[in-house]
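Two proteins follow. First one:
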Amino acid sequence: MEFSELIKTATVESVVLGGRGLPAVRGTLCITSHHLLLSSCPGGDAQPGTVELWLLIRNVDAVEKRVQNLGWYQPPRTNGSPRDSRLAGSSGTITLRCKDLKVLQLEIPGMEECLNIASSIEALSSVDSVMMMYPFFYRPQDLRLEEGWHLFPLEQYFQKIAAQTNQWRLSDLNRDFTTCPTYPAGVIVPAAVSDDTLRRAARFRQGGRFPVLSYYHPSNGTVMLRSSQPLTGPNRKRCPEDEVLLGTVLDEGERGFIIDTRSAQAAKQARMTGGGTEPKSSYPQWKRLHRPLERGRPLQESFIKLVEACNDASLSMDRWLSRLESCRWLSHVKAALSTACLAAQCLDREEASVLVHGAEGTDTTLLVTALAQVILDPGCRTMVGFQGLLEREWIEAGHPFHLRCARSAYSHARLKQEAPLFLLFLDCVWQLSRQFPFSLEFGESLLLALFDNAYASDYGTFLCNNEKERCLCKVKENTHSLWAWLNQPEEKKKYLNPLYSHNPLVIWPSVEPQSIQLWQGLFFRWIRPSQYLDEARAEMQRLVEANEAPAKESAGSRLSRSISDPAARTENER
């Protein structure tokens, strides 16, 4: 397939670009294989200079078109030519609804040009071949292809664990992806369990996702594992190797918890179709806890309803609150945080190991294990540590980004496997950052950048559904890593939290309904101006860099000191 075959009209003059809160700009619209560009015309209605739209077409979620036909006219006959009829003053409006929730409007002169532009954008935004996507063509001058891809090797993470215990080992049994097509080549497993036992256990788990180590809690040696559901089926089949694997994790007399992210009813229904749960008789040391988390269509529809409500400027207060409640997005946030807190509590306070799984083990399972680590581990709350967590617990762990992030909240296409699990995780992390403003080294801007890049990106980090697919597509050899870009010194500054102060403690968030708030920085990002907030953040960053505020003393400790010792207050504080 050639991109040129999908572009019916490449250039249109006198196009007017507009959007909510944006000044109208007239200019020349161009369509390339991956971008929509608009350069403003000098003079006329445009501001002096050049204003450009540079939109990645992959970012377009829905295209809506409306044409206006203002009548027909007949031009005079020339040289005996037959008389023809033409449209008089025809024009069209294209509304582009983007995956990052931005909404743009293009006023295009000429009905044919309008229809051609809309058709071209729809065709280009629907290209589903990974190797035809923009990251395979993007070549920035200041980055090398190999940069960023090997920042977070699993070997490095394992060495930290090996320095504290010898009960775990790094296995490469999945190096050819035959044991489990959605796991990475290397996994951390109990040292006492052989690879042959693991292979047999994998056959007893959906998709081959046998229990592997997700997190080792250094304060007491407990661990968090993740897997998919066991294939017990209606006949309650058993697997001795799977029982040995989970039994090895616990010493005699110890207990562990299995957190199932399905309801008890859903787990029971799964057994009738070949899935199921771990029976108590076969896993006597493990206690099962059901904490249902939505995934798939209910979560996607919740996201769509929330965005619709946020974009409706006509709502009264009562109607807004009613729609906010009916979309249930904040309930999903609360449920995810509550389940992650439960996993963290089992590890840290109950001193019990945990196995987390739902059905496939690639969605809500990863949501819980990743969130629990942000709560427990101060290393995961640093800029680099958080990136490593995403690499390990989302990307390498097999979250199907290509399927889940194929469409965002505006698409008119029939829902298939789309679901905003990763967005839900980012929202939960934002809730943590709001409740603990000094404890995360990164700020909201990083979470927004991650959301944008998960749905449409210049970089290859979130491409494909698992490591096997990335190897087949040679993603790491032919695209740039998002981490390489984010960790450039000048770029990294934009994402740091100027209030950050290292907090070695576990951060226990409040999950009371009153504590869960709408993430306005994301859902209202393009609806209301953020100029003053941006200016405030820039000023805070400037003060920190200029050392006008104590660099190593947190605002929290200064406040505590001033309360306990009024004499210690500065003149300004008084």
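Second one, unrelated to the first:
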Amino acid sequence: MSQVVATGSIQSTLLSPDSGSAHDRAQKLLKLATFSSIVYPLEGNKCSKLGSRSFHISARKSAPVEVVPVSPKDDSKIEEHLQHLRGVQQFGDASAGMWSKPSFRRKTKIVCTIGPSTDTKEMIWNLAEAGMNVARLNMSHGDHTSHQKVIDLVKEYNAQAKDNVIAIMLDTKGPEVRSGDLPQPITLNSGQEFTFTIQRGVGTADCVSVNYDDFVNDVEAGDMLLVDGGMMSFLVRSKTHDSVKCEVIDGGELKSRRHLNVRGKSATLPSITEKDWDDIKFGVDNQVDFYAVSFVKDAEVVHELKNYLKSCGADIHVIVKIESADSIPNLHSIITASDGAMVARGDLGAELPIEEVPLLQEEIIILCRSMGKAVIVATNMLESMIVHPTPTRAEVSDIAIAVREGSDGIMLSGETAHGKFPLKAVKVMHTVALRTEATIPGGQLPPNIGQVFKNHMSEMFAYHATMMSNTLGTSTVVFTRTGFMAILLSHYRPSGTIFAFTDEKRVQQKLALYQGVCPIYMKFCNDAEATFTRALDLLQKQGMVKEGEEVALVQSGRQPIWRFQSIHNIQVRKV
């Protein structure tokens, strides 16, 4: 059967240079009361300017093609297939160039939560080979002994792997409000009365403890209480000095230590608890690469953590998790203070109306892109694969949307932590991301990434290196000791892979998160030309570039290597 391949060129005033600075556009988007009005308002037959999209669709029949394989080992097999897909797409943009070539290395990075299903040496090796780029430690579960085991295994893998590296992310528990222990699960039905109390050790058929002493003060009659993000819901009817009496709205099975949210409210707890500080010190001792900080409400939390890390001499990047209602008004300052953000859609959808979550996701990605920050989309991406071997079609679309919106990373939680099919989940995520990236137009004008790099010459060179890479269809080679230039290039999203050579192991690991960056550890020598030659030989030996292929070599950044501070250059070299 012949196949019709349709491609769309999407122009949005959201990213138009005529629609104001990236900062101004992002600020306009971050007014909670106007999320819906930004996208949906209609005046007569005219769409709102900010939400408008114009689509140009072209279709061409192609020869029958095979389904894209689900393993990264099969990447070489789909080269011809991807070339064909690129070939039939006509984007109508001359900047793509007649020499434009596809890139077959997946650019969007995969974050995997490690848990009981995957905390063995064999599974961590298999996850890495299947496509994992970042190993996430969820400090809400397990103890330091179990997490130490995982850290040691990841470091062992990194020491042995020749052409791959896995970063380590420590995700703090944060100020979670949870129900207490129950002797056995309780089945609750709609209309039934149920009580939550701040008294310790209560666990009966009609009452359970809560681990938060101010819980009674934070809720009012009429509030909606959600269990596990909405799996069960309770309407608050009344309260006493130590108890909250509720009516079951959506029943189900209540188990021990379930997560509790109040719709539209955040708990009046510090973002970093005493347990979190212990976990953060554990991360410093083990030299993790990233902290994902839960329930960040303002920038002061980020400053406090960064000051602590500076006092420890720890070079660990801080990723803020956007998951509470209180974080939205302060979104710009929070992300400015951080090294990146995670769209934690579970709690975000519990504290805010669920219809706002996809709008917030897109807007957070746009804001992070405009500010040169990493961004990860998380929660429920392949939730059904916790118990099923194949995903729902909606989940596949969810991954594709996050990739097309420009997320640096996409995350698996329970799917790999305690799911039945962790490797299949990673392979599905890898395949969907790779297939989606093959349809994203290359050679487009890089968007203005905002004010964060405005006073540095490197931004101009990153821009021109991206344009050169896109026009000639080349990969980009950069040498870095801090990761700065590789990260800057990543945010411009060149069509080719960014091969980032560094002689710092920690920098190599951090770069594993950033979109399109292939971090490679290599010792530098004093002779620049000899180092360039060694780097290109290494790429050729590992099959990352071919003989006769051209690459764009960039020398720029904050810390000069083999150049004077005032000299920046871009070269095109043939392998």
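SUMMARY FIELD: DSSP finds 18 helices and 25 strands in the chain. The first helix runs from residue 22 to 29.
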